[in-house]
Amino acid sequence: MSTQIIRIATLLLLWAVHVAGNTFDADKVKPIDQPEPVTTSDKAAISGACHPYAVVSSNGYTSSGMKSSSSWSMSGCGGSELGSQVYARSTWHDDVWAIMYAWYFPKGSDKGWDFTHDWKFVIVWIDNPALESPAILGATVSTNKCLMKYVPLEEKYVDGTSVK
């Protein structure tokens, strides 16, 4: 997936969150209940991370984020008491299956610069989701500055058929 497409998709998502008329405080958005995983792609899901929050409620309201002046801290590993939400989509790209997982954070920080709304994502590349045991080919990880590619993925980041 090209960097330009990912940047455009991220900007559109941020814009959609920003312009939404109905918003909630970041710690008031309840995650949407998820169905039980059925497919191999479902079961390969990354299900947790530090400080993720739900950004969209079941009625379509969105998080207002947290202003840079708020006291929320990135120390430790917490998140909303209501639970977190991992957003995911998958598709074929250049003959490999790409699963993109995205996490929303109501506040971000980079080298002392704080900002409202932050998204991070990981793309896990597998050979074929229809196989009984698809092979993990690599991963692409977003940072505040760039995309990091890990091909092949080191064993310490793999737990059986899942990425840690």
Automatic annotation (TrEMBL):
Stretch forming the signal peptide: 1-21
Gene Ontology cellular-component annotations: extracellular region
Localization annotation: Secreted
Predominant place of localization: secreted
Keyword Cell membrane listed: no
Record carries keyword Aminoacyl-tRNA synthetase: no
InterPro entries the record matches: NPP1 (IPR008701)
Assigned keywords, A-Z: Secreted, Signal, Virulence
Pfam families in UniProt: NPP1 (PF05630)
Family: Belongs to the Necrosis inducing protein (NPP1) family.
UniProt protein name: Necrosis inducing-like protein NPP1 type
Species the sequence originates in: Phytophthora sojae (strain P6497) (Soybean stem and root rot agent)
